[in-house]
Amino acid sequence: MAQARVKPRRESVFAIGASPARAEPRDWGRFEVFAECLLTGVWIAVASLGVVTYPAAFAAGARHLRRRTAHEGGGWRDFAADFRSASRGGWAVGVGGWIAVALVRVDVQAVRAGLPGGPLVGVVGLFALLGLAVAGLRAAAVWTPGSRWRALLADAGRRTVLDPAGSFLLVGGAVLTCCSALLIAPLAVPVLGAVAAAAVAVEERYRRR
């Protein structure tokens, strides 16, 4: 009896062990999330033009990305509604953030002036500012309508200390944004969305531990 000839199986050039029909939707999904992050960065930048509205802008951007990754829809109108809701207490957080930046600037001037203990004060002030920035991002990443910013920041502060790896990732994202602004200023706008996405991912990682 003649043996049936087995036709060799062709492997996909896009993914090992996956057919081209399955690889294409997965790759497109990743690209779609990346594009959504860039668009969200533009929305965050526009909403932050109020100077003290950046916490609310990041909160609305993070909630938008959570909806998109959960396939719950969402768009500019939902982002605007979340931004208005988050601004009710978020403006006070924004004012506090600028006060912290001003205090760190005074510390830096003390270091430059050569005052006794200036370097130590400058280092402590810089680390405190980074910690506040990370806590603010983590609080914005879990914000929902009706949440109180004071409670969010208190819980985010504890997670910042208890999850140093996630906090370090957010510091890296903030540094990446600053470097993008120094190299190509317009590039810093869409990168804001990537920072918001990183905060959402860090919080999800901490929740699933």
* Ends apart, CA distance between termini: 59 Å
Main pleated-sheet profile:
none
Q: Classify the helix fraction into a percent range.
A: over 70%
Query: On the 0-100 scale, what is the average pLDDT?
Result: 83
Tell how many strands the DSSP assignment holds.
0
Count every helix, treating DSSP H or I runs of 4 or more residues as helices. Answer: 7
Q: Report the uncertain regions.
A: 1-28
Order of helices and strands: HHHHHHH
What Rg is obtained from the alpha carbons, in whole angstroms? 22 Å
Overall description:
- This protein is mostly helical and 209 residues long.
- The chain has one domain (20-207).
- The chain has helices at 20-47, 54-69, 76-113, 118-141, 149-162, 164-183, 188-207.
- α2 (54-69) packs across α7 and α4 (118-141) crosses α5.
- The termini are far apart.
